[in-house]
Model the fold of this input.
Amino acid sequence: MALRVGIGQSKNPASFSAGREAAKIALRDLKSDNPHLAIAFISATYEPEKSVEGIKSILGETPLIGSSTAGEITPWGTTKHSLVVALFKGDELRFSLGWGEGINQGSREAGHKSALTANRKFLETLSPEEFRRKVFMIFPDGLTGNCADVLRGIQEILGRSFPIVGGSSGDDFLFQKTFQYCHKLILSGGIVGVLMGGDLSFGIGSRHGWKPLGKPRRVTKAIANIIYEIDHQPAVSLYEEYFGEEVMELKTEPLASMAILYPLGMAISGEEEYLLRNPNTITEEGALVCGAEIPEGEEIRLMIGNKETLIGAASHASLTALKNLHGAKPRIVIVFSSISRNKLLGRYTENELEAVQEIFGEDIPIVGFYTYGEQAPLTSEINIGQTYFQNASFTVLAIGE
Amino acid sequence: MGIKTTILFVAAVISIALSIFLNQSFGPYAGEIIRIIILILFFLTSVWMIENEERKRKVSEIAFEKLRQAYNELDEQAKLIVRTDLQLNKTQQELDKKINGLYTLHEMGRNINMTFDVEEVFNSLKENFIQKLGFEKFLIFLLDENDKKLKCRRAIGFSEEEILQIKEKAENFATFKNLIQNGKPVLVERPETANFEEKEIGEFLKLRSFIIVPIYLKELIIGLVVIGNESLYSRVTEGDVELISILANQIAQGIENSRLYEQLWHSYQELELRVKERTKELARTNEELKRLNQIKSEFVASVAHELRTPLTSIKGYASILATGKLGEMSPEQRERLERIDRHSSELAKLINDLLDISRIESGKIGMDIKEIPLNELLKNILELINPQAEEKNIEVSWEIKNDIHTLFADYDHIRRVFINLLGNAIKFTPPKGKISISIYRENGYIRTDISDTGIGIAPEDLSKIFTEFFRADNPINREKKGTGLGLSLCKKIVEAHKGRIWVDSILGKGTTFSFVIPEKPEITLVR
Done:
């Protein structure tokens, strides 16, 4: 077995202890020492510095990459307020880490830099002939900037069809500040990524399960990730119109908390599903702030989903990821599930993970988090497809050998 | 260019071409007429075509309008669907929360009731429970019994530094004070609805929506519970107030239980302490009594000893006088001398018995326990007793059961027990009565029963019979003298053998004295 994985989780309320405990348990689960990569999903309730110190106190100089979350996913179920560490070890595997800061000032540049640093490191320190680059896994900030631009920046370095997959950092539904972790670096409003290569197979699957409803609307004014007007009306009036009386009553409640149940969708030619955008926040002027752009002139639809379509999508995404492994044996499944799903599914959230287990088997290690956005090719049946910034999706990265 | 226009254009070209051709063939007039006819025809055709076109346009406009209407209707339907769906989602969220809440409350209640320690009650409120209830942060304050100040007893979802701050400043918030006074729960669904004081607390605790409910214990507010969320995406709702009130009740119940238990435990402890003190006191008294008894025994022993010497002299001189060597005695003098001799003998016996009792009691003489042939002992005793029995025509029978041959006892002393008991039996049994001795094994002891068909002992005297100097009031006792020490001495001897003596009697029918001594002497372990 060339690829080993180990997963650990801690719910200790003290940040340092939580990091330490989760790392210890992961190391024990790995049944080996000196792992080659550590991925950490750290609830936004933890203090970033102390958490990292805790993890490092056990793992030392093991390359560490991670993200803050709005909920964690483990083989033992979905939780909140925990710290999860996943360890990878394999002599034929190669990992190089990259990062870029300041997404809100220059989204494309940040993406560009993250891919550049990771790529350069991969090419310089590892033998590219022997170890091919396979997939770039990223954790960008989900609150600031235009993540579609971040992806463009990455694609400038790695190419438009290079597989990119990931999840945007969360902060426990506060929508205030998220963190990205790379080595000892703690970023907020940045992007971190790990370029994986060598002797590994991977399969990506992504699907959301939301369906269009009502008549198409047109975005008449938008700048980057902010939609100002739809059909020449303040963008928020779309939701007000559909929610009707109900929303008036709840005027002071953040509309976004309901709006994330009904994302906006754009049709992409040749794709089965729409590309979705969640309005994370709504400005006082009624503009919708999304994780990534909806270009001016774009035709959009209001989307609706239910438990069946969402769980069905999770199954579909898992199956696609498994198919994309092309017969390789899956060793670990990394899941990026949207907070909209968490919100809509409520106490049925666990059913998504059961769907993964149904496809990959009960014993498959699962790790992941609830995201403010996912990066994956749209419903593609092949790994090599253009990666989009998505919302409300269930994105699966299966790694095997 | 449309088809119709093309047709018109082609028709015009053809008609012009035709008119030129007709001009050439039929001359200008005929040509002119034909041309006019063609023009008229052309005009009529054009009018017809335009009208037709207009009609078609109208039809399609109506169709388009209808379509647009249907389209808008569909969108309206979509709105209805969204609203229903929204309502459904909200209802489901509420329901989820309620189900979760009730289930979690039940679980928490069970945990709370599992302990009798107040601290454990608080510790049993774990973070995962609070999360399951749908909250991030949780605080319990209790009023201190001494200074009546709010003390934070449990904090979940706060950092250690925050907890320190909370402990320091909690006392100052007006909302807390008001709630302690009026007991009205506080519900802040969102920061905008909070009053100034509530806002202050919200900002201090980093809670954007929260609930504060009082903890009631027997109509008295003993503290309060604060619970809430920072994220507005999971707000507290009115339904939560009820839920948290139930939780506060459970906590109060837990506290009450622990307090009751503590009280119970304290009173138990106190009781135990008192019992211990009393026991100590008793032990002390007992020691004192023992000491006094010892002194008494020693006193009796020394007095008896001091008495014995002059008594021996008295008896000696009396017997010398009786011999008449010192001069003849008148019968009166002789009678007085005999009385002196008899009384001296009785006195000597009394002194001897007293001396023995006190010696045995004080342990001055130990029992010289040896294996005694039982038959031999009985024969010896009966030889002594039989003459007296025969005198009263009393039949004495004896029986040794269980193949017992020997007895572990002090020969002289056990003999005295037998003689005393048998002597009593003969004394209190009327002539022609029966006395039976029965010896048998019982639970590791040898038991001896000496039964008679005598006058019996009154029930009220049974308990006093072994007391020193006690003499039952009956005609025989009134007639015959006795020391009242015989049974007491028997008791001391049997007890010195680590045995026990008791009596059963029916007044007028007879009495049975029973005593047991161990079958085998105690084995002393050599260390």
Summary: Chain B has a mean pLDDT of 84. The interface with chain A takes residues 71-72, 74-75, 78-79, 81-83, 85-87, 89, 92-93, 96, 99-100, 127-128, 131, 136, 156-157, 159-160, 190, 192-193, 230-235 of chain B (CB under 8 Å). Chain B has 13 helices and twelve strands.
